[in-house]
Amino acid sequence: MLLNDWHPVALSTQVTAGAMLATDLLETCVVLWRDSGGVLHAWEDRCPHRGTRLSMGAVRDDTLTCPYHGWTFGKEGRCTRIPALPEAPLKAQVNVYHVQELYGLAWVCLGTPAHAGPPAFPEFGDAQLRKVWCGPYDVRSSAPRIIENFLDMAHFAFVHEGILGDQQHPVIPDYSVETFDEAEYGSGVWARQCHAFQPQASKAATGGSDIEYTYRVVRPLTAVLTKHPPDSIREAIALLLQPLTETTTRAWIILALNDFTSSDDALRAFQDTIFLQDLPILESQHPARLPLTPGAEVSVACDRMSLAYRSYLKQQNLQYGVIR
Ligand code: FES
Ligand code: CO
């Protein structure tokens, strides 16, 4: 079912006209390229002749040329030239995928799109908020483990001690989780009015404070959190995952916040610090695939949001948090 969802695969700015970018999505090699009209294309990165990676070839006159025998393919993926046999019928066709650009990212759907587009992230359209792209971060774990870590507040005091948490304040007050279906936010599960004491909740924070959080899961591999500290800093963080394989993932993060004083680099460095603290934990979790069988792992009340996420995945028919 993930085959029919949209996944981020690159920053839009990474794919310039006349250039190619190779990436992976759901165990499929994908090549992105942009034609002279600025239109982005996402194809299987595999020549239908002998399986060579097309991304090793060239973009010329809005066609891709394979590096092995020089076959060329036009914008629709159809073979337009076979240099070794000019009279041969041109029946070869590259697999072509759905692609669109949103939030400064290129999004690909390998199957039949189950949604008109990528997940809702309304804060991105808020002109009061500045946008910063962080990552991407490559993780040797399944995408659902990374979402679950993002939804988890009880690790702050241990993994992010001194920044997002404090071992003197490890208690997570109870909170409730609900399903939602809203025009602005899309549908999924959310937890509102979560609270945590944080020594330094953001790059701009100057001291410890009680932070109100909301978390929402809007697609199997997309979650957004918003922070409402007592000062006027407002921040939404979108975690957008690119499942490379069942157990390897690239994480993209977009911040939408009203801190206009910190530099982009400083804001990114702050996210890097947090993510790199989570990384060894994520890569140590066993099994890498999120267990969806009740009782497979022991949970407590403050794990409500991750349990709600597991139920949501089950409803979406994502067995073991896997790919198909
Ligand atoms: Fe691509 Fe032969 S493998 S042209
Ligand atoms: Co963390």
TrEMBL record:
UniProt domain Rieske: residue ranges: 6-108
Record has Chaperone as a keyword: no
Keyword vocabulary terms for this entry: 2Fe-2S, Iron, Iron-sulfur, Metal-binding, Oxidoreductase
Pfam families registered for this protein in UniProt: Rieske, VanA_C
InterPro entries in the cross-refs: ARHD_Rieske_2Fe_2S, Cholesterol_7-desaturase, Rieske_2Fe-2S, Rieske_2Fe-2S_sf, VanA_C_cat
The keyword 4Fe-4S is assigned to this record: no
PROSITE patterns given in the database record: RIESKE, RING_HYDROXYL_ALPHA
Sections of the chain in a coiled coil: none
Superkingdom of the source species: Bacteria
PANTHER family linked: 3-CHLOROBENZOATE-3,4-DIOXYGENASE, IRON-SULFUR DOMAIN CONTAINING PROTEIN
Name this protein carries in UniProt: Rieske 2Fe-2S domain-containing protein
Organism: Duganella levis
